[in-house]
Specification:
Elements lengths: L1 H19 L14 H4 L9 H22 L5 H15 L3 H21 L7
Helix pairs in contact: 3-4, 3-5, 4-5
Length: 120
Amino acid sequence: MLERSKFWWAALGVVAAGCAMNEPKPEPPAAPPSAQAAVAPSAPPVDTAAEEAKALLAQAETDVQRARAKRALWSKAWEDLVAARQAAAQKDHARASRLARRASELAVLGLEQLAYPPVR
């Protein structure tokens, strides 16, 4: 019986403490921003062609490395990857994208060729 009464006294104390706490007061609304503050500096334009070329070049690098590790790398895939790197360095994003995409495709084809039966 004593254990129960201690529990109820503790529960009553928690409830009383919760009731005694002050409610948070809402903050007054902020003043509307002035016209000068509303104009934010514009972010530099994102060059989507450069980002796409960079992503395709990274994918081609990965595919060529996988093909190279399995000894399935075609020489044309390597040549296209090197040419894509040079085009990216010269900021020729369209050419870099095209060459990187082709290098990646050829590397994947080289890996797929491993599944074919050997020819005698």
